[in-house]
Amino acid sequence: MKCICVIVPREEGEKVRKKLSEEGLLRLDARISSDGQHVYIPVTDSKNLLYPTREMDMEKMEVPKNYRDLLDMPPGLMELLPTSFDIVGDIFVLKLIDEILPYANDIADALLKTNPNAKVVALDRGVKGEFRTRDLTVLAGENRTVTVQKEYGLRFEMDLAKVYFSPRLATERKRISDMMAPGESVMDMFCGVGPFSIMIAKNGKPSAVHAIDKNPEAIKYMDINIKLNKINGVSAILGDARDIAPKLPKPDRIIMNLPHTAIDFLDVALKIVNRRGMIHLYVIMEPDSIGMIKKSIAHLAVALKRSILFKDIREVHTYSPTQGMYCFDLVIG
Question: Residue 79 contacts by C-beta under 8 Å, 6 or more apart in sequence?
Fold first, then answer.
């Protein structure tokens, strides 16, 4: 099959292949070849490449479409295989129920073979500890948990075993950044590696962003990501939001993305947010709990002598068969 190939010295082949893969330029349906001195890497676009290119006849590479096709498991267990995964950078994060855990390595190998952009498959045994990080075990591929996630033109480096990150919030982060008025001041009370803060700083034209997290690893990677994305005006602060937030300049907008416990910090946010400011509160709950949560928020606002307008309440994504992650967009008076 005819392909445009980038021509790379053999000793640089793997480095260039990884770079092309990260940028989405690696063609996955054609096999890489070598003549001993050079490596010929099929690409989807030949523009702005640092190496010469040539149209060549390349061997077609057949990739199975579904990882299930490579597994030999009893029919009853095949029905229990997961149909979706969290994909962060080049790492597939896999959750398995107990019945199919004995097949975990086979499942991971099959995922690698059917997803050429996946370099690591890790088993997620749940979110644990003070910093709510994933308990990960690498099952297949490269022995690492560090990766780089791309999101709306931004890059976020992280160690998934040391910080929490959800790729399913990409659209939500873009939504919030699109709501921004130029010149707003922002506080991100539980910033993690910085996806909300950095996207807001890049697209929302804030006057300042103060980002807080009590996990030292999260702040370490946020500092890396600020530099990686060439961001100005964002301060990454290590500490507990309950202690740190009241000492910072009052914000016009507060992000509260710690869905299991963020509501416990709402009193702090209500005390410090500017009038006519907005709080984005994330909560994991069952749909029929919305009314109860609204009443709790309203009662707290009255106690603190603040008014609240529930501008929007929306489900961001499902969390479990009975629960979802919801965002309460609150306008504060």
Answer: none
Q: Which helix (H) or strand (E) element contains residue 178?
A: helix 170-179
Q: What is the pLDDT of residues 106-139, one digit of tens each?
A: 999 999 888 888 999 999 998 888 888 999 999 9
pLDDT of residue 64: 63
Question: What CATH class does 166-332 carry?
Answer: alpha beta
The tokens of 320 are what? Answer: 């479990």
Contact 262, 293 (CB under 8 A): no
Listed as own residue / partner, the contacts of 265-268 with beta carbons closer than 8 Å and 24 or more positions apart are 265/189, 265/241, 266/297, 266/300, 267/300, 267/304, 268/189, 268/241, 268/242
| DSSP bridge partners of 155 | 150
The per-residue pLDDT for 250 is 98
Provide the 3-class DSSP secondary structure of residue 221.
helix
- Which CA distances in Å does 69 have to 65, 106, 139, 161, 237? 8, 12, 19, 30, 48
The CATH number of the structural domain formed by 67-144 is 3.30.300.110
Domain with CATH 3.30.70.2580 in the chain: 2-57
